[in-house]
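Trying the structure run again after the queue cleared.
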Amino acid sequence: MTNPARNSADHDATPVLTLSGIKKSFGGVRALVNGELQLYPGSVTALIGENGAGKSTLVKTLTGVYQPDAGEICIDGKPVHIASPTVAQQLGISVIHQESVVFDALSVAENIFITGRPLKHGLIDWKTMRRRSREIMEKLETPIDPDTLVGDLSVAQKHMVQIARALSHDSRVVIMDEPTAALSHHEAEELFRIVRQLRDEGRALLFISHKFEEIFAIADRYAVFRDGGAIGHGLVCDTDTNQLIDMMVGRSVEQIFPKVPVELGAEVLRIEHFSRAPEFRDINFSVRRGEILGIYGLVGAGRSEVMQALFGLNPVDGGDIYIDDKPVRVRSPQEAIRHGIALVPEDRQHQGAVLTLPIADNVSLPSLKQLSKLGFLKRVSEYVLAQDLLERLEIKSSGLQQHVCELSGGNQQKVVLAKWLGVNPRVLILDEPTKGIDVGAKSAVHQIMSECVQRGCAIIMVSSELPEVLGMSDRVLVMNRGRVCALFDRADATPENVVRAAANA
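Done. C-alpha cells:
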C-alpha cells in the first residue's frame, strides 16, 4: 500500500509537467474538453477514468501524437509545444504501452537504442550500445543479454525493454498505460518494483490502470477524468475505492455485479470427455437455460482452449457435444453458430472485431445470411438490426458508420457483444468479457449478461477476475493444468474454496 507519510511529505512539491485547459475534438466528437493534470517528481500519479473519459487522448497529446486544439502544456513551469513523439522524447517524456511496442526481429540492444544510437566515426558504436544496454538492464535487476532477440522474450521482459528504452533517454516523465494487462501476478509485482525504483530516482510517473488494487498499491496521487474533463485529484491516502468510483461514473455503483435470480430451465449444452492434447483432457460440464456457468483457473489452466474447441475453432482428439441432449458435431464456427453457440473471444481487437470497419458492418457479420436476399445484403435490415443493438447496449458513438477502432475499449467490447446477440444465441460463451475495461463499462456488460439469461440464454463465462466469477455465476467450474478440478454451487463458491482448487492446494 502507499505510504501516507511519504504522500504528505511531497504535498508541496513543484510539478515537473502541467497540463491546463487541454481541448481536443475529432470532427464533432469532443475527446477532451478540460484536460488538467500535474505530475510531480518522485511521485506516481494514477490516471483513472472510464473508457471514453479521455485518458488515451490525453496520453497521445502528451507524447506528441495529437496536437491540442486549445490549452497549455508546461515543463518546469515553462510552456512547451510537443510537435511530435520525437519532440516528446527530447523533452524527457516516454511511454510504456499496454501492448509492448518493440521490434521482435531486433536485439534487446537495438530496441533500447531504436533512436539515438551511439556513434563512432559516423558509424553505430555496437560495443558502446551493448555495454550501455547491459548497464541499464542490470540497473533494472533484469539481466537479459543485449544480443537476445526480443521476439524470444516474454511479455513481461518486453515491458522491461521498453522501460530500459525510457531510461536510455534519461526520461523525467514516464507514462505507463495499463502495463499489467497481460502480466501474471508475479510479473506485475516485479513491474511494481521497477516503478518504485523509478519513483525513488525522482522521476514523475503517470500510471493508468482500471484495477483499484494496483492503484492503492503503487500510486501516491490520483487524477480522475470523466467525459473528457478532469473531475478530481488528490492524494491516494486520502481517498477510497467508493469515492473514486463515484467520481469516475458520476453516480454510485452500488452493485457492479447485478446478479438477478433466474429460474433455471432445461439443460441446453453438455460436453463429455472433451480432450485436445496437450491443452486439456477429459472435460465434462453442462449448462442450463438462464444459467451463468463461471469458469475460473490460473494462467495455463486451458480454459480459453476449451472454449475455442467448443466453438469449432480447433479440432479435438475426442469427446462429445450434446445440444438438448442430442449429439451434434461442431467442426467449425459456422456449425457452432448453426447450433446456437456464439463466442465472444478474449482478444477483441484481433479476433472479436474488424477495427477498420464501421459499427454496422461489424454487428451484421454473423447475420449476413439472414440479412441477405438472392446474395445481396439488405442494407435497411442491416441498419435496423445494428441501430437496435446500438441503443440496447448503449454504445457511445457518433453513429453506425463510425469505425470500431475509434471507440473506447468498453464500447468496442459492446460492439463484439452486439454482433453475437444479433444471432440470438442459445449458448453465449464469454471469454474474459470485461478484460481491460473500466468499472462503469464492466457494470454495463454484467447488466447485459443478466438480461440475456432472463431471456433464457445460457452463458459460459471465463474470467480471471475472482470477484466477477463469484458475483455473476450460478455455478463455478475450476480448471487446473487442463483438467476440471472442482465444481461449486453458488453458495459454496467462496474465494478460499475457488482459489484453493485453482492452485490445486
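Confidence is low (pLDDT under 50) at residues 1-9. Worth checking whether this holds up in the mutant runs.
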